[in-house]
Amino acid sequence: AKGALWGGRFSGAADSRFKLFNDSLPVDYRLVQQDITGSIAWAGALQQVGVLDELEHGSLVKALHELSESVTDEQILSSGAEDIHSFVEGALIEKVGDLGKKLHTGRSRNDQVATDLKLWCKDQGEQLIEALVRLQQQLLSLAQQEAQTVLPGYTHLQRAQPITFGHWCLAYVEMLERDLTRVKDALARLDRCPLGSGALAGTAYPVDRQALAHALGFASATANSLDAVSDRDHVVELCSAASTAMMHLSRFAEDLIFYNSGEAGFIELSDAVTSGSSLMPQKKNPDALELIRGKAGRVYGALIGILTTMKALPMAYNKDMQEDKEGLFDALDTWLACTEMATLVLDGLKVNSQRTLAAAQQGYANATELADYLVSKGMPFREAHHVVGEVVVAAIAAQKALEDFTLPELQAFSGVIQSDVFQHLTIDACLAKRDTLGGTALIQVEQALGNREAKEAVAEH
Ligand code: ARG
Question: Catalytic: which of 156, 278, 419, 461?
């Protein structure tokens, strides 16, 4: 096959349909900078073992730097090369002639692609970390701003107990914190350099692989060549981290879609992240949030895809593994885009604190308080729960809130009820009582915000 890296053994040409099927360039062109970086480091290793002299090394590295600066996606994609490794080598040979043909000494595309992809994961991981931290910061400032805004808290989508909007924000800050640790864990585990593992058995040149790993910014070199070229755990782990994070973002989106609904009216989304209907002029649809919710699906697909591709693959490299990139790229691109979009949605979000308060006041969100009140007067909780159930039934029938009953009306349900009951039924009382670690009381929310600030101050030092 003309122009391919492996033409010598072949006399017949590849079928054009096979070439189209086999080429990975339309996907892996994104690894061009990583492939050049890896090649520069490999040139250094080849000089160290005497395959390249100083002059040769110098001109190869110079040409690779030039390529890195001048190369464009269009140039790569129109080259007809089989994959990004073939493209870079071809472009190098075009620049420096036969010298370029020395670069692949002792190297295989198997250790090369494994290295390139890990370098890409490290770059992308850093970008994700930054985006996740920005979303956390956006949530924290909204939490600060809405620390006292009453919001009905739900279970089963039924109003359960009042919380604050700030408390809701902080719930997502926690999820994002775990998402961050998942990316960092994955990055720490993948931080071992496969280069110098050859095709599968190791390289025949006495390369200092630890030094090579460090030159590429890895913590160390991989320990087993078979594993090094056939390990895609990092793809699985990042797709898994992406899936969990998208699950969180989809819940975030769903909450806000509901809060934004005409029925709830708790928030108003900015024009900047909503769209209209072509038919119904009154509509302002939460498209950004619906897309975040919807895109979780394709990210889960990438996770299932890579797990299924890797299952039962024999040692070591198999071409099946070329299927690793498309899903990974899409999953991490999608995760990054959704994280940025979530930040943008929060940026222009307005909370209607009158609506949230009114909703929290309806729906008997203070029923637990009444039960706790009866408990404070000596009634066992199980009995108190039953009594309050009866009060709620009567209140529903009378279409009023618990606190709208008069004292004698309440006393008809239980003699232990005194006039001090009313101060326990206010929203403020409900909130203030949730004052243990992690609760929705203002003091706890402020404590949580303060803890974050302290943590960030430490992180900056
Ligand atoms: N394009 C291939 C991939 O992405 C590169 C490795 C090819 N190695 C081989 N022996 N054919 O996996």
Answer: 156
Residue in 70, 277, 376, 386 annotated catalytic: 277
Compute, in angstroms, the gap from residue 322 CA to the centroid of ligand 1. Answer: 6
Is 141 one of the catalytic residues? Answer: no
Q: Is the pLDDT of residue 385 over 60?
A: yes
| ipTM here | 0.96
309 lines ligand 1 (CB under 6 A): no
192 bridge partner residues: 220
Residue 110 beta carbon below 6 angstroms from any ligand 1 atom: yes
H or E stretch covering 351: strand 350-351
CA 187 – CA 148 distance, rounded (Å): 38
- The pTM of this model reads 0.94
Q: What is the per-residue pLDDT for 23?
A: 97
| CB atoms inside a 10 Å sphere around CB 412 | 14
Section 267-289 average pLDDT: 88
CA distances from 169 to 2, 11, 152, 163 (A): 59, 65, 13, 11
pLDDT digits (tens, 9 = 90+) for 158-195: 999 999 999 999 999 999 999 999 999 999 999 999 99
Q: What angle do CA 405, 369, 436 make, to 5 degrees?
A: 155
Whether 156 is a known active-site residue: answer yes
In the reported structure, the alpha carbon of residue 84 is separated from the centroid of ligand 1 by a whole-number distance in angstroms of 10
